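To: structure subgroup
Subject: Chain for Friday's discussion

All,

I'm putting the inputs and outputs inline so they're searchable in the archive.
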Amino acid sequence: MEERKNNGPVCDQCQQDFKEEIKELVDNVENHSQREYEEKKEEIESAFGSEGNRY
């Protein structure tokens, strides 16, 4: 087990699970095209109006 500063020990399996989840999230984002991004953006703006631009 590895020690983290201020937060105690970290289990190796937890680190591996976290890394795999991050990789999956990044892979999902990289697979989106600009067209898909624009479609989702329009969908969010139509659902939330200007509120969708706050974030």
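Points worth raising on Friday:
The first strand starts at residue 2 and ends at 4.
The helical segments are 12-30, 34-48.

D.
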